[in-house]
Amino acid sequence: MSGWMIVQILICVGLILTVILQPRKAGMGGGIFGGATRADRSSKFKNLPLLTKLTVLFSVIFMSLSLVFALTIYR
After folding, report:
1. Residue 72 in domain
2. Which are the contacts of 56, defined by CB distance < 8 A and separation ≥ 6?
3. What is the count of structural domains for the chain?
4. What rounded mean pLDDT belongs to the chain?
5. Which of 29, 53, 31 is nearest to 42 (CA)?
6. Is residue 55 a contact partner of residue 18, using CB atoms and an 8 Å limit?
7. Is the residue at 38 inside a domain?
8. Of 74, 75, 72, the residue nearest 8 (C-alpha)
């Protein structure tokens, strides 16, 4: 089980880095409260930038591992 936790920590670090490295869409945190992003204008996943795709990938993997850990701990 500890090996999977190390994988989850690495996924978490990757998710944090992809979020931090993304370019700002608006100055001074204007996008925090719902500013328009590229994802709002484009509904196709293949048209999104690489960092956005990586963010989605890391977040789905992180959420899946978190759910698996939660279900196995509380059994």
Report:
1. yes
2. 45, 48
3. 1
4. 80
5. 53
6. yes
7. no
8. 72
